[in-house]
Amino acid sequence: MGPPTTDDGRDGYVTFVECHQHRLLRAAYLVCGNRHQAEDLLQEALLKLALCWPVVRQGDPAAYVRTILYRDAVSWWRRRRREWLSAYPPERATAEGDGTLRLALRDALGHLPPRQRAVLVLRYFEDLTEAATAEALGVTVGTVKSQCHAALRRLREVAPELARDEGRSGDLVTGMEVNP
Question: Is residue 165 helix, strand or coil?
């Protein structure tokens, strides 16, 4: 079953997807750390959106898709092994500076439990409030705060090069962009 068949609904759905797909794909990649899995997660989320587009379009479709995306990612992690086998060595930065930090951040995110990773992506990449993050994940604001605190502490342990220093402005995660 595809997008709605009425011209008005279909056009609105197609416009929404065209405007938001790249940002949503990047968020999915940050959550799962794998481009192919991110594409699958986003495709499933957009399919679920298409099935209920007439109802969701009157609210906030982007929030609806984000919620599906993060909840499906957590469900996927619960069903699968945490260890990913790869025939290829990890990517290495070719230039000094931000590229090295992006790779370090991406690798460090891979060491976090699914819920902590989702909280960091929602709070710092999607720039959602604690309340909006809690709503998207179906948890309390207190859980978001504790998961965020624990995740940042773990990132500092795993990748101390990401911590703030005198020579660089910015914080551990905020302001850094990871490209899939």
Answer: strand
Per-residue pLDDT tens over the stretch 62-108: 989 988 998 888 887 766 655 555 666 656 545 555 667 777 777 88
Percentages (nearest 5) of helix, strand, coil residues in the chain: 65, 0, 35
Report the number of distinct structural domains present in the chain.
2
- The tokens 């993060």 sit on which residue? 70
Of 30, 47, 79, which one is at a domain's C-terminal end? 79
Cα–Cα distance measured from residue 16 to residue 62, given in angstroms and rounded to the nearest whole number: 8
pTM for this predicted structure: 0.53
Q: Are residues 105 and 74 in the same domain?
A: no
CA 143 vs CA 24, 32, 125, 135, 137: distances in Å: 24, 21, 18, 11, 10
Residues belonging to the chain: 180
Q: Which CATH number covers residue 95?
A: 1.10.10.10
Token duo for residue 56: 């969701």
Question: What pLDDT does residue 73 have?
Answer: 84
**Do 23 and 45 form a contact (C-beta atoms < 8 A)?**
no
